[in-house]
Design a protein that fits this description.
single chain; 206 residues; mainly alpha; AhpD-like; 2 domains; 0% strand
């Protein structure tokens, strides 16, 4: 669901249908966020290219941790739920919830990762408040200038995506309905889950 009208999957044609198909091939249905891009499907391709470019230089654990922290700080439920699920492949679900609740002492993260989380959250909330000392703190934990740039880039990209989706009222899909209830509650930090049935294009390939 969103505040703007979107094109239903089975009514889509041309570039919109092709964009929906790519999303369905990946997830098995057409996500709410993809429907919001129906008015500018070319931007979805640009977003995917940006993500791929950023991820190329960042290992999976770091990418998911920073993305999760950024989404959580921006209070976007969809990305917090999605990347919390992915982060749980690298840390415990207990740690994911602790990070979401800003309790790093319970998170089992290393000191370097905790410093990275602090920096990522600060960039997400107010990048103009970042100081040279914040960057130096990361350097003291062994992060190179290039790695610090990458962390900021992951946050900045997620800020674009979450701001756009929340700005037009996109709600998370109900694929998160089966998540453990305590985790689901901890990660639903903004808009509520849309419990309508997931939409699938009837004549999709496969």
């Amino acid at each position: 669901m969103a505040f703007i009208d979107t094109i239903a999957p089975n009514a889509a044609h041309g570039d919109v249908r092709a964009m929906y198909q790519r999303q369905q091939d990946r997830y098995g249905y057409v996500p709410n966020y993809a429907k919001a891009f129906c008015h500018r499907p070319e931007l979805m391709a640009l977003w995917a290219a940006l993500q791929a470019g950023i991820r190329r230089r960042v290992d999976a654990r770091r990418f998911e941790l920073v993305t999760f922290v950024a989404a959580n700080a921006r209070k976007n439920s969809g990305c917090t739920l999605a990347h919390g699920t992915l982060l749980a492949q690298h840390v415990s679900t207990h740690a994911v919830c602790a990070i979401a609740e800003h309790d790093l002492e319970r998170s089992t993260l290393s000191q370097a990762e905790a410093a990275m989380v602090h920096f990522a959250r600060k960039v997400a909330l107010d990048a103009s408040s970042v100081t040279a000392g914040d960057v130096q703190a990361l350097a003291q934990h062994g992060f190179s200038d290039a790695e610090i740039f990458d962390i900021a880039a992951v946050v900045a990209a997620r800020a674009f995506f979450t701001t756009l989706l929340d700005g037009v009222g996109v709600e998370p899909d109900n694929r998160f309905a089966d998540m453990d209830e305590s985790m689901r509650r901890a990660l639903t930090v903004g808009r509520p889950i849309d419990y309508r049935p997931l939409e699938v294009m009837a004549d999709a390939a496969g």
